[in-house]
Amino acid sequence: MKARPIEKLDPRMADSELARRVGAGEEPAFRLLMRRYNQLLYRTARSVLRDEAEAEDALQEAYLQAYRSIGSFRGEAKLSTWLVRLVVNVSIARLRKLRRGAEIIAIDGDAAERISEEIPMQQENDSQPEREALRAQTRRLIESKIDELPEAFRTVFVLRAVEEMSVEEAAASLGIPEATVRSRLFRARGLLRAALSEEFDVAIDDAFSFDGARCDRIIERVIARLHEDVPRGA
């Protein structure tokens, strides 16, 4: 790889030029490509593998493959589409190894059907620890429910709802018909809504709970006030 640390690349450089420069072995261009697509590709790998460490490893492997084979990228599809398909293939291969021969249904349309955060939370300037903790808990809940989606819907949901890819882009990235993308997204939304609704119903039953530490604290405070207000020996 040709390291060119002095050159400062335009972050808005067109994908076609970026791919050409990466193919020429320019390290700054490869760094820019990774920064541009890290989130999309990590989320894609994470949606297949459902494990952060495995997703990171798959992403690294996919980037290395991309670097070696980017000369074959001809611009007939978007660079993002080409990269997503590469990450999906690497992730599925990794999943096969993890499952040690368990049945895997391929994600692309040439085989049978397969696959489907971090929900993007609005970053607000909020210094209140309780609110930040609540946001984190909500994000973890949503992420866990996405992880529980059937494999046929999960990656479609991440690409469409989280990364906001168009139907056409998601279909091209996964190698499935646009109608399949629409139907899987519809089913995924329904399943996610039902799962969150069930979780919400359980949470309501526990709302404003008054047991445990809170109950003990109030009791002790009342007793302390009682001792202050009532004269001794009364």
Write up what this structure looks like.
The protein has 234 residues and is mostly helical. The chain folds into two domains: 15-99, RNA polymerase sigma factor, region 2, helix turn helix motif (Rna Polymerase Sigma Factor, Chain: A), CATH 1.10.1740.10; 129-229, Winged helix-like DNA-binding domain superfamily/Winged helix DNA-binding domain (Arc Repressor Mutant, subunit A, Orthogonal Bundle). 67% of the residues lie in helices and 0% in strands. α2 packs across α6 (151-162).
What's the gist of this structure?
The chain is mostly helical. The protein has helices at residues 15-23, 27-49, 52-69, 79-99, 129-147, 151-162, 167-174, 178-205, 212-229.
Secondary-structure map with pairings?
Blueprint: H1 15-23, H2 27-49, H3 52-69, H4 79-99, H5 129-147, H6 151-162, H7 167-174, H8 178-205, H9 212-229
Helix pairs in contact: 1-2, 2-3, 2-4, 2-6, 3-4, 4-7, 6-8, 7-8
Structural class: mainly alpha
Distance between the termini: 88 Å
Tally of discrete structural domains: 2
Largest sheet: none
Give the tally of β-strands.
0
Report the sheet-strand fraction: under 5%
CATH uppermost class of the largest domain: Mainly Alpha
User: Rounded to an integer, what's the Rg over CA atoms?
Assistant: 25 Å
Number of helices: 9
What is the CATH topology of the largest domain? Arc Repressor Mutant, subunit A
Oligomer: single chain
Mean pLDDT: 79
Classified in CATH, the superfamily of the largest domain is Winged helix-like DNA-binding domain superfamily/Winged helix DNA-binding domain
Helix content: 55-70%
What is the H/E string? HHHHHHHHH
